[in-house]
Give the backbone structure.
Amino acid sequence: MQTRIGCVAICLFMLATRMALLSANQASSQNVGEDAVNGEWLVTRDVYGNPLYQKLILKLENGKLTGSLAEDKLEGTLQGRTLHFIARDADNNTSEFTGVLSNSVVEGNIVETNASDPSDRMETRMTATRAPKRQPGPPRRHEFTPTSFYRQFSASNKPVLEIAPGDTVHTTTVDAGGADEHGIRRVLGGNPETGPFYVLTAWPGDTLVVHLKRIRLNRDYAISDDAIVERALDNDMSVKMKDAGKSVRWYLDRERMVARSERPGDHLRSFTVPLRPMLGCVATAPGFASAPPPTGDSGHWGGNMDFNEIVEGVTVYLPVNQPGALLYVGDGHAAQGDGELNGDALETSMEVEFAVDIIPNKRIRTPRVESDSKIMTVGLGGSLEEALRAATRGMSEWLEQDYSLNPSEVAQVLGTSAQFNISEVADRNVGVAAKLSTQQLQPLKRR
Amino acid sequence: MQTRIGCVAICLFMLATRMALLSANQASSQNVGEDAVNGEWLVTRDVYGNPLYQKLILKLENGKLTGSLAEDKLEGTLQGRTLHFIARDADNNTSEFTGVLSNSVVEGNIVETNASDPSDRMETRMTATRAPKRQPGPPRRHEFTPTSFYRQFSASNKPVLEIAPGDTVHTTTVDAGGADEHGIRRVLGGNPETGPFYVLTAWPGDTLVVHLKRIRLNRDYAISDDAIVERALDNDMSVKMKDAGKSVRWYLDRERMVARSERPGDHLRSFTVPLRPMLGCVATAPGFASAPPPTGDSGHWGGNMDFNEIVEGVTVYLPVNQPGALLYVGDGHAAQGDGELNGDALETSMEVEFAVDIIPNKRIRTPRVESDSKIMTVGLGGSLEEALRAATRGMSEWLEQDYSLNPSEVAQVLGTSAQFNISEVADRNVGVAAKLSTQQLQPLKRR
Amino acid sequence: MQTRIGCVAICLFMLATRMALLSANQASSQNVGEDAVNGEWLVTRDVYGNPLYQKLILKLENGKLTGSLAEDKLEGTLQGRTLHFIARDADNNTSEFTGVLSNSVVEGNIVETNASDPSDRMETRMTATRAPKRQPGPPRRHEFTPTSFYRQFSASNKPVLEIAPGDTVHTTTVDAGGADEHGIRRVLGGNPETGPFYVLTAWPGDTLVVHLKRIRLNRDYAISDDAIVERALDNDMSVKMKDAGKSVRWYLDRERMVARSERPGDHLRSFTVPLRPMLGCVATAPGFASAPPPTGDSGHWGGNMDFNEIVEGVTVYLPVNQPGALLYVGDGHAAQGDGELNGDALETSMEVEFAVDIIPNKRIRTPRVESDSKIMTVGLGGSLEEALRAATRGMSEWLEQDYSLNPSEVAQVLGTSAQFNISEVADRNVGVAAKLSTQQLQPLKRR
Amino acid sequence: MQTRIGCVAICLFMLATRMALLSANQASSQNVGEDAVNGEWLVTRDVYGNPLYQKLILKLENGKLTGSLAEDKLEGTLQGRTLHFIARDADNNTSEFTGVLSNSVVEGNIVETNASDPSDRMETRMTATRAPKRQPGPPRRHEFTPTSFYRQFSASNKPVLEIAPGDTVHTTTVDAGGADEHGIRRVLGGNPETGPFYVLTAWPGDTLVVHLKRIRLNRDYAISDDAIVERALDNDMSVKMKDAGKSVRWYLDRERMVARSERPGDHLRSFTVPLRPMLGCVATAPGFASAPPPTGDSGHWGGNMDFNEIVEGVTVYLPVNQPGALLYVGDGHAAQGDGELNGDALETSMEVEFAVDIIPNKRIRTPRVESDSKIMTVGLGGSLEEALRAATRGMSEWLEQDYSLNPSEVAQVLGTSAQFNISEVADRNVGVAAKLSTQQLQPLKRR
């Protein structure tokens, strides 16, 4: 079977369990005030051993309880401390909650029922606490020195820092093999990440905005190799490259901003590669449905995209799938050709500074990158055709959402003006990037 | 960067931490006897927070210590309780251990050094205990009633049972959505698995043999749907199928061995599907390099292959990548067309009985399936071309290993006689199965 | 640009110029009787040097002229011998004819105009003669000995025989290299074909039915080789197979119906391949839009499908794209594995007998094959994914057209019951075959 | 079967029959002088009705005859006017000629024999005349006004002009639909081509160099549409685009060098596309093995590559497969995005000026394009993966041939520095372009 979660369509989210949950007091006959009820709650559910996180909005007005659980509208009652509501989705599947509210904690059971098959029901334990709140005050700049590094883009990894929209983080990343700016190995390789950063007020259905203000080299060497990945080799070249694969160490000349091989072959003695530091990985934590992907993987939530336009100065937009978004950064490359043909780029540690923002209630289905001169989408999939379709779909969605274009207009803009690069063929997913010139889009009205 | 573990080539394995490790006593000046040293040890290493498991063989003879760590030969000394050895791989990369032996526990540090870059070194903590031993006696039949179900093919899941080569297990599996033979949901959906079963004496580099002696229906309905997966739809059919996707419930008539839709449309009133119960998932736990894959995924270690020839009576061969192999079974289908075009097959719970065996030191790179009439390999990859190449490579390897054929002979057998089916297009990996008739191979000499 | 013919949507067809066209006499003032006008005409147009063939139906009644040109309805007048009509398609594009009728020949000019851009017009010369008629009488059996063989599936090749629906042809084919049943080379290699056979009454929009009554070996050897095609080789196998490619000659034992290599390697001394004679090529001539494809190519019109189920006893259905259908047969294989992995199958000459039929006004978009036990469609495309989609679309169309299933029902039948084989990966197009059991479809109502 | 020509590996070439062949006189006993024998001859062979063209070099010295036929060395004798020689390839397959030399014509029969199967022989008629010679004098500039346009990249189309290396041609092309600079339709659509131009001294095995000196717009409109090709549409977009496909006419503002839609939708009123005139087609005639491809097709010989970097100022390198190379140009685009997503680019007529050159005995397997800033190869195939492999192989070959790099060095240059664009997805073949910066290659030694 394809992996789905179950028969009841659930839009769920998940998060590292960071909250000490207070044990609920007994329900009393005393009524609770509207202030104690109204507002946003962060729901934690135990679904057969899997933590699921959702947004709950409650509104008590004139004794009537309304609001929403995740995407679904709810209606209910509060009698004393006993809370009861039914949430309903578009297909009339229901989630019925019964529990108590006590000391800022809601606790009880929730029963989901499949509208088209009443025998198909799932009962889970639910607790909810007040969602973490953004502190008042101006944006802050966080100096963050990482001490641990994660190897899965998981919602279960404990956030290293809570940051607010508008805040800036200055930090570092280790290289793909786990070595830091001093060449000291700090963690097992495989693109270990700095983060996750919990972005306050970010809920599933929002878009996370990451302004990459600085991506700077912080050591003078990078590691790569001299193989070519299988996907780029035909039969003849497979034979020719059969003994390839030795490690190549590059000296990073940060004054002239070029790399040169430390032990070049005869014909490459004068060959240099212009440095263009980039991040191979920028990710939010994926949603509940998938098991946490390893940090070599990618998806609509970003990840190991290995796209050489993710450089200093660009803005990356990613869908938020979990409360707090849970931003990861890592896998710095001093330079990388399209496709990352060697499997490795010029792998190195990096100094990174970024600011974050949230666009509430804006859903995007494809990672977006914006520079001064281009808007770009990164399509990812198991084959280049699949990646091309994802990149095209993503750019089409961008033109619809932000420029109000209809399908015919989208086709005219893409056909005449889009650029398509093969961003990556080195990992399980391959990537195709669609690019449009911002100058050419200038005359269009952007929302 | 592509995800690799690090610069030192390591053949490692991983396992749920099931052993209470005794704290090592202080090294004394008193010498340890050969019996206390010689034999197989199960190594657990903490690699920057990731558990790694390896096989250690020690042989103390005339005061000289030899043996192997994983694939690498080692030489060393034992002075009192102080153990020191250096293991070396083919490229002269070294792993140097220093520690103590005490009360059947070896404990200390291991330093790996890259031969071509001495600055590239990794130090990890290592402990080793005696490998679990097979009990003497005839093969046993285990009656196993599962109470928990896993949703990752992980080496970190606690084995539910230790079994020996030759043993038989009789058990059940829940359906892909998590419901059992009574239709009770027991776990979140997504192909929850029965297992893992720890197979004694199985080490990485061996092949696990799984004889599927019974795969029987144990309830009278299955769940499927009426969509067609994206990979099988061209533009016209995408438009035509745009509203598809409703759940379809099938009645399983176990007497006549056919399924019929419980609410068929007008034209399918008399349409029945012959029942051919199969397992969508048979897997060993993958090796250390990859993060544990979700139970919808697949690879050279098997997994969610959704191959409709994995029926009662066949034998499945899978590579062992972790000590104990860690066998998982699940995702029963009452029947399935090639490709599993609906995304779901006829998903149902199942009664399963299997016997296991181990072929020591035989490495296979592709799942193999053997029936009375066919030998089959399952190629898996991101595109059908990739899967075809994997299936062809796997069958070629089988003909080389077991029938001693050279490349020219392999080509002649495959070109004239192989059958290729598209086994699955519903998951992230697609599958292609290569099949050869055992009758046709009869005249060939099988090793 | 993608190749299209022009801005005016034209449904055109093309044919070998077989008719001596009488020069039209001058138009006289004398009126022409209805009999001289009414009925089917075969149109030949000279479109900038390219011959185009269309069906013209004229009906003169009470002085009013109606009918159709290709797909488009026409209205017009006949004044004396002067014929004038305007045909109109669904988008209101028009084709206006002015000319004369004389001695069973219509001759004049036709002007096509683009409704959305009146400046876009195309004027061509048109002549029409009476369509060749089927002779009365019972079906005939033609004994046909080929003397020439074609290497393009072209509508411009002169038909070797005119046959009627119901007729049977008994003939032979040379092998893919051009050698006949005596091993004499008769033509340059590359799948030279027997045919084309002109099937009377076949018009574009019909379906040609080919019953393959006999496909028999007529010599005792076949030629193949020991390579594996690039598409089926991964990097490792590319290296392993780098010196492959030598010719392999197989002895065809027609008594025991097995093939054995004439000079087998050590391990294949007793290896035999069951003979299952098949035709690699069955084709109708494609339509006007494409340049005539070489006989190694394939498409919705069939061609070099190399599908090992096209054996004696099956029926092949192909779309008619040209007047007379223009049927080609060739490329006999004594046996072939799925995919034709060696590039060559067991290539040999063949004795062939087939009967033809026409299903008027039935359009199919995919080659269909029907045996006693299975209905099958052959999807063809540049990648296996594309071929899978074509096979699925084709089978879906079959279930809709012949079994009245709706999309949801189609999905349920395919998902539970379809078999998908990789029919071919050796040519420019690859093929995937979808198969359904006729026994399983038995309860369904077939139109 | 895959289409091959026959069992004897033949490197053949083909050409429009432009030479009046004199009938050979009877052989006399009188000996022929060395001048009458020595030098290059253009061979025409009739291979079962297919014209084949080859280069023959004869050298008579001291009564001994040596030389070559196509790639194979020959040895023979001349007795009176009777010529006899045997040419032999690397596998010892032989071609034995017997005939007479008379009045500058060689005529006789040639018998090819398969070394590994002597029964496999092919006899063909052969005539040879003196190869056309380049006239002495400086390079010329040809003003050429096309009157006919071809729709196949065929060696059988009569050359429109003979030109010499160094010569320049100034001409025009019609648009993809067949309309010229006055908007008059001149030929059926489908990328009708100007040419073929016969380049004197060009033989198979050489490389043709085409300097594109001018590619200028010569009318003020272009035709395109608002569809997106199937390959770029996922299921959702297929539904969204289901009604697309209407023609879009663009005004070409040649002063400001931008295009704007003549009837833009609301949101594209101010949208303009920068003009960047290019040629969709540049081709040499393919070799003998393939049937002449339609002008919508492409291959290692170039063709309908639809690559938007083939603009004024670049140099295109193509393999010569036929005597005279037979250069075609056509399918001008005023502008085109990567991939030609609409199927049509901004299709228009064009003024074109190019100079040609020949690099003798240099074989390339992939079209190459060189601009001031980049070297580029165009990989073409049935899937993007296949095209990527072809582009990579082509660029690798370029770096080996012209920069002497070994495989390890090639990998380092490509991995760090190559750019990969999806050049086209609109035709049967898709294209991927590999690009390297000439500035970065500057320090490398170019042969």
Notes: Chain A has two domains: 34-129, 141-362. Chain A touches chain C through ten residues (CB under 8 Å). Residues 384-403 of chain A form the longest helix (20 residues). The longest strand of chain A covers residues 117-130.
